[in-house]
Amino acid sequence: MSDLFPKDFLWGGAVAANQVEGAYNEGGKGLSIQDVLPHGIKTPPTAEPTPDNLKLEAIDFYHRYPDDIALLAEMGFKVFRTSIAWSRIFPRGDEEEPNEEGLAFYDRLFDELDKYGITSLVTISHYETPLHLARTYNGWTDRRLIDFYLKYCEVIFRRWGDRVPYWLTFNEINSVLHFPFVSGGIATPKDELSRADLYQAIHHEFVASAAATKLAREIMPQARIGCMVVAAPVYPLTPDPRDVLAAMHTDHDSLAFSDVHVRGEYPGYFLRRLREEGVDLKMGDDDLRILKENTVDFVSFSYYMSVCESGTREVPAGEGNIVGGIPNPTLPASEWGWQIDPVGLRIVLNQFWDRWQKPLFIVENGLGAKDVLVEGPDGTPTVDDDYRIDYLNDHLVQVREAIADGVDVMGYTTWGCIDCVSASTAELSKRYGFIYVDRNDDGTGTLARYRKKSFGWYRDVIASRGATLR
């Protein structure tokens, strides 16, 4: 059937180490920036880990991963996206030798995935910069982080290069514009951070990403290396050309990050921004060559929402559109105010494909909601999450349409395939998963796992290659 997804399409789900593993002080792990963010990415860090930080235990994936991976296999997952906690491998981030106990944990994790034939997609740095690097070096504002990151990359590439075929260098790298501490490990408060320091940190991450891509090709030439960005299409609020121009400028802010990764050079509109803001980047002699010669194999992205922009009037931003912009009056929103726009996913897939002609991978998409446990038909607890099924169905239909448009889409991994601690709010009540985890925002709960209604729905979608989509 021509309307089915490709046979080699990578169906699966995604998590991040800091949101599922827990065991924050076990196995020789050092502290990460997430261990001092008990209330989400918009709040200032605490001096030390505090008991109200749900990520310290999270959903205890560190100890329960065999059972959790068995559930993912039951759904028919082809791929599982997770991250490696940098501070499990290098607890401070600047040591000479890695922590073998941390490496051994991921050996066991990949063994379990291999047992079920689930392919691994690994994010190297997913919002979990070692806290020592943030507080001692001010994160990526310091060029020395490039070498610390590359040492970390070399260790994990040599350890798992023959087992992990897909790698992402940085999670949502363009989010540093909005959340410098979470995305760039930059300890300077955002309202005190100079534009020069912010753009310098961005440059260092670009160079590190390109150098890691070079290293990956030397150590594991069979692997494919991608960048990862937040994708949020930007619509003009009205047809007024000034609104269209404002939308273009906001879009450029994010597109620049993939432009550099794919084209290997800074786009003219980005260089103009630097000139107008008086920023003179400090570059190493080989930086531009490294960027040019080590472009990525594919572009991956998260997709949750679209935004509007206006150049003609001030409109208060909505409560939840976390990347800013103006709420779209034509769209509904989730319980957290994120606007729901399935068609926007088809739009952004076409935009990215037309712009870069690189394979695309949707590595995050999902609906955060307050799920309620009920008794299922067989007497076991479940969640009747038809709202999640509707959301995912409507987005996957648009992915299918984009593929029919000629877009090369490698795969689709839903965000938080098992309930995890929210990055944006540090809540567990903001649930995304097909699997319910019995843990509450106050830390209570048994950590038991229960299949939601969406569990069986996604299993059937995968098994039918999308034929069951409505």
Structure notes:
Belongs to the glycosyl hydrolase 1 family. The protein has helices at about 15-20, 60-75, 85-90, 100-115, 130-135, 145-160, 180-185, 195-220, 240-265, 270-275, 285-295, 340-355, 385-405, 455-465, and strands spanning about 10-15, 80-85, 120-125, 165-170, 225-230, 235, 300-305, 305-310, 360-365, 375, 380, 410-415, 435, 450. It is an alpha/beta fold. The chain has a single domain (about 10-235, about 250-305, about 335-465), classed as TIM Barrel (Alpha-Beta Barrel), CATH 3.20.20. An eight-stranded parallel beta barrel has the order 1-2-3-4-5-7-9-12, surrounded by five helices. It has a two-stranded parallel ribbon with strand order 6-8. The protein has a two-stranded antiparallel ribbon with strand order 10-11. It starts with 9 loop residues before the first strand and ends in a 7-residue tail after the last helix. The relative contact order is 0.14. The mean pLDDT is about 95.
Would you spell out the secondary-structure blueprint of this structure?
Blueprint: E1 10-14, H1 17-20, H2 61-74, E2 79-83, H3 86-89, H4 100-115, E3 119-123, H5 131-137, H6 144-160, E4 166-168, H7 180-184, H8 195-219, E5 224-231, E6 234-236, H9 241-263, H10 268-276, H11 287-293, E7 298-303, E8 307-309, H12 342-356, E9 360-364, E10 374-375, E11 381-382, H13 386-404, E12 409-415, E13 435-437, E14 449-451, H14 453-463
Parallel strand pairs: 1-2, 1-12, 2-3, 3-4, 4-5, 5-7, 6-8, 7-9, 9-12
Antiparallel strand pairs: 10-11, 13-14
Helix pairs in contact: 2-4, 6-8, 8-11, 12-13
Protein name: Glycoside hydrolase family 1 protein
GO biological process, one term: carbohydrate catabolic process
Organism: Nanchangia anserum
